[in-house]
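User: Reviewer 2 asked us to show a designed sequence for the structure in our supplementary figure. I'm pasting the structure tokens here. Could you produce the per-position amino acids so we can include them in the response letter?
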């Protein structure tokens, strides 16, 4: 009996490790002027409809604490205008989307992150007018890869220099 109970507990613990938590919730910090909010929302709609064509995927949008913020309204209206199906808050079969829109420190710029329950994360920085900032618009995965690539290049160069120095020393 103890062996069966122990086996059952072990199976439950191992199976729970397979569960992948979805996005936690949305957040909207201080927002830019209304035209900039509309431009950011339009860009977010464009990104989302590029990843998930309208009519093929139902989206469950997680609301922010201030669900009546200007971004949420512009974003939802833009999604509806493009033909995206917005699922009910309790829908379990829809792709869940959470967003974070917040002001970047010491800059008149904003940061938008879209987090999907299928694991995709899109992040983008915008200027005061709601236009994407060049050089700062990349996904989290791309940012990690570019940082890792630079570290690998530096390590490769140092290893090559050490090899050449050792070889030159041994030749003498």
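Assistant: Here is a per-position design you can include in the supplement:
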């Amino acid at each position: 009996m103890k062996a069966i109970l122990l086996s059952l507990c072990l199976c439950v613990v191992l199976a729970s490790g397979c569960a992948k938590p979805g996005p936690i919730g949305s957040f909207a910090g201080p927002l830019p002027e209304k035209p900039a909010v509309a431009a950011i929302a339009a860009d977010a709609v464009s990104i989302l409809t590029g990843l998930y064509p309208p009519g093929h995927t139902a989206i469950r949008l997680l609301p922010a604490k201030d669900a009546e913020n200007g971004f949420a309204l512009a974003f939802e209206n833009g999604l509806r205008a493009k033909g995206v199906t917005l699922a009910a808050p309790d829908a379990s079969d829809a792709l869940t989307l959470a967003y974070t829109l917040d002001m970047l420190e010491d800059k008149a710029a904003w940061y938008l992150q879209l987090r999907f329950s299928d694991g995709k994360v899109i992040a983008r920085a915008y200027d005061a007018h709601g236009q994407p900032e060049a050089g700062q618009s990349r996904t989290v995965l791309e940012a990690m890869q570019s940082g890792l690539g630079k570290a690998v290049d530096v390590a490769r160069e140092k290893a090559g220099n050490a090899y050449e120095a050792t070889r030159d020393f041994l030749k003498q």
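For the response letter, you might also mention the following. Residues 139-165 form one domain. The mean pLDDT is 76.
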